[in-house]
C-alpha cells in the first residue's frame, strides 16, 4: 500500500470512478456542473483573482521601458503612515484572507466527515508534519534562493523587497502572521481544495499536479520569470508530496517557514548581499503592485 493511502485513506476515495458516481447520485451531471461553478467562484475570490492580476502586472512590466531586472516590488507593504492604523489594517487583511480559507474548508465539509481531517490539516501527526515541512524547506527554500540570485543576475527577476524590521514590538508578529496567511491560503486552495474537486471531476493525478503548479506559478508571476519557474517546481513537488502523504499540514509548515525566513530575514540579507536584496532606483512609470505576500 502506498504511503499516501496509509496517511489519509480519504484520498483513496476519488481514485475509484464508481465511488465518484455513487457520490454524485442522484445529481449526476448536475453535480459536476455545480463543482465547476463552485471552483470558478472560489478561484475568482482567492488565488485565481490574484493570479490574473499577477500575470497582467508581469505583462505591463515587460512592456515598460526599464528592463525587468531594474524593477522592484514589495511584499507586505505598509497600509498607513500612522503605526496604529497600519497594524489595524494589516491585521484585518490577514483576518479576511483567512476567512476565505475557512470558507473553502467549509465547502469541503461533508456530513459526518471532517474536511480538516480529510485534507490532513489537523494535529494528529503534527510532529511528523513538522519534520516533513522542514525537509521541504531545505528541498525548496535553499534552491529557491539560488534561483532568485540567478534570475537577478540574468535580469529576468524583479527585485523583491520584504518589509524592513523596526523597533515596534508588533513588526515581527505581523510578518509571521502574514507568512502563516500565505501558507494556509496557497496550500489549502491550490492543494487541499483543488485536488479534491478536480479528482471528483475525473482528472488524473498528474494533470491536477501540473495544472495547479501552473496556477501557482501565475500567482507569483509579478515577481518575474525566475519566480514563475521556481513556484512551478514548488507546485509540482508539493503536489507530489500531497499525493504521497495525503496531508496539507507539512506543506503549510514548509511554506510558512519559507516566508518567515524571507520576511523576517530580509534586513539581514540586505546587509550581506546588497546587490541582490538592496534597493534599486524605481524607473518612472514602472508599476508597483501590492499582491498578497507569499
TrEMBL record:
The CAAX prenyl protease 2/Lysostaphin resistance protein A-like domain covers which part of the protein? 169-260
Q: A single GO BP annotation from the record?
A: CAAX-box protein maturation
Any one Gene Ontology molecular-function term assigned to this protein's record: endopeptidase activity
One Pfam family named in its UniProt record: Rce1-like
Q: Does the keyword Zinc-finger apply?
A: no
Source superkingdom: Bacteria
* Protein's UniProt keywords contain Membrane: yes
Q: Which positions, given as ranges, span the membrane?
A: 39-59, 87-109, 130-150, 170-195, 202-219, 225-242, 249-273
Q: Which UniProt keywords apply?
A: Membrane, Transmembrane, Transmembrane helix
Region feature Disordered, mapped onto this chain:
1-24
The record ties this protein, via InterPro entries, to: Rce1/LyrA-like_dom
User: What protein am I looking at?
Assistant: CAAX prenyl protease 2/Lysostaphin resistance protein A-like domain-containing protein
Question: What is the originating organism of this protein?
Answer: Microbacterium lemovicicum
Amino acid at each position: 500500500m502506498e504511503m499516501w493511502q496509509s496517511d489519509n485513506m480519504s484520498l483513496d476515495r476519488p481514485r475509484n470512478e464508481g465511488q465518484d458516481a455513487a457520490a454524485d447520485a442522484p445529481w449526476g451531471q448536475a453535480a459536476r456542473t455545480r463543482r465547476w461553478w463552485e471552483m470558478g467562484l472560489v478561484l475568482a475570490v482567492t488565488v485565481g483573482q490574484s493570479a490574473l492580476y499577477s500575470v497582467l502586472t508581469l505583462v505591463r512590466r515587460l512592456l515598460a521601458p526599464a528592463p525587468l531586472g531594474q524593477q522592484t516590488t514589495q511584499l507586505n507593504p505598509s497600509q498607513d503612515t500612522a503605526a496604529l492604523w497600519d497594524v489595524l489594517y494589516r491585521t484585518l487583511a490577514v483576518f479576511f484572507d483567512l476567512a476565505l480559507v475557512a470558507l473553502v474548508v467549509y465547502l469541503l465539509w461533508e456530513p459526518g466527515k471532517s474536511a480538516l481531517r480529510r485534507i490532513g490539516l489537523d494535529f494528529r501527526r503534527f510532529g511528523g508534519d513538522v519534520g516533513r515541512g522542514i525537509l521541504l524547506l531545505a528541498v525548496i527554500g535553499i534552491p529557491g534562493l539560488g534561483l532568485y540570485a540567478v534570475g537577478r543576475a540574468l535580469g529576468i527577476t524583479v527585485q523583491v523587497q520584504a518589509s524592513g524590521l523596526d523597533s515596534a514590538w508588533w513588526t515581527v508578529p505581523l510578518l509571521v502572521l502574514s507568512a502563516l496567511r500565505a501558507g494556509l491560503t496557497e496550500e489549502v486552495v491550490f492543494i487541499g481544495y483543488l485536488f479534491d474537486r478536480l479528482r471528483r471531476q475525473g482528472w488524473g493525478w498528474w494533470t491536477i499536479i501540473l495544472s495547479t503548479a501552473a496556477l501557482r506559478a501565475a500567482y507569483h508571476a509579478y515577481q518575474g520569470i525566475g519566480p514563475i519557474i521556481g513556484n512551478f517546481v514548488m507546485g509540482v513537488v508539493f503536489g507530489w508530496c500531497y499525493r504521497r502523504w495525503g496531508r496539507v499540514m507539512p506543506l503549510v509548515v514548509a511554506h510558512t517557514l519559507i516566508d518567515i525566513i524571507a520576511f523576517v530575514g530580509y534586513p539581514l540579507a540586505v546587509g550581506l548581499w546588497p546587490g541582490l536584496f538592496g534597493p534599486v532606483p524605481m524607473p518612472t512609470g514602472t508599476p508597483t503592485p501590492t499582491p498578497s505576500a507569499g
